[in-house]
Amino acid sequence: MLGKNYTSMTVYSKKLINAFIFLVVFLIIINIAFSPQAIFTNVLNSLELWVFKVYPPIFIFYILSSLIINVPFFHNRVSKLFRIINFRSSHERTIFSLSLFLGNPATSALISENIHQNKIKIEDGNKLLCISSLNPLFIISFLGSTFNNYKITIAILLIHILSNFILAYFVLRNNSYSNSINHVEINHSNLIIEIFDSIERANYLLIKVCGIIVTSNLCKFAIQNILIKLNLHNPLVYLFLALIEVTSGLYDIINLNLPVKLTLSLIAFLISFGGLSIHLQVYAMIINTRLSFKRFFLFRMLQGLISFILCFIVFSI
Questions:
Q1: Domain residue limits, the chain
Q2: Is the confidence at residue 186, as pLDDT, over 60?
């Protein structure tokens, strides 16, 4: 009986998602028909965001991270970090260490790559995916330039990191502790090949990211444009729209002019949640593996809630 209910709920959820997709596509077609210039401007703005804000850091850090994982000198040193956390192998420890600087979707791409190379197991990859989150450099950049207040920036950054480590503790607490470091060996004559392979993988990753950013912003613009024409200004609707894309979503939250404590808590939630655009990018990275996107999504929600509560408490003191 329970199995039948679960199956019917799954079918209903898929139908609901399909209906929503058809609705969004319909809204985009309407916007193209009546506001073609605005649509094209939105696409160009999304491409500009990708070229100047997304491509440079992901391209650089992804290649560096690939080299750190695969070059013994770097790998065997970075893998010694966070040995207090119960990772099963040095590869998992290295990926987790790098994820604190990489963020998603680059971290999910590295996890998928190491699974395909049989360096980590699916279950361990799922655990790593659950505790991989947003790039802290983005947090510093956005909050620093928006609030011009280092105390707020540092507080939200630390809350984000703390919530991630709380999840890491509970996700990995039952792992058997490995006291040894699994040294990586690589033929140094293949180092140049590894660099070129990393460049190829980085560009493949970034092309996917570009398409998803353009599509996500297009969907958000189409929905917003219809809401404006219908003169609908419900804050809850705009909070939902803020979940689509994290950068514009953070501005949406600020523009709602809510009480400061609630605004900062919602910002902390969205930063830890990551935005649906990033989630789609992660899905694109793991679609050819047996990694669980549903589990990843639930943990993003959980970290978002933890960050919201912590932020609300901190700014209530």
A1: 1-34, 36-314
A2: no
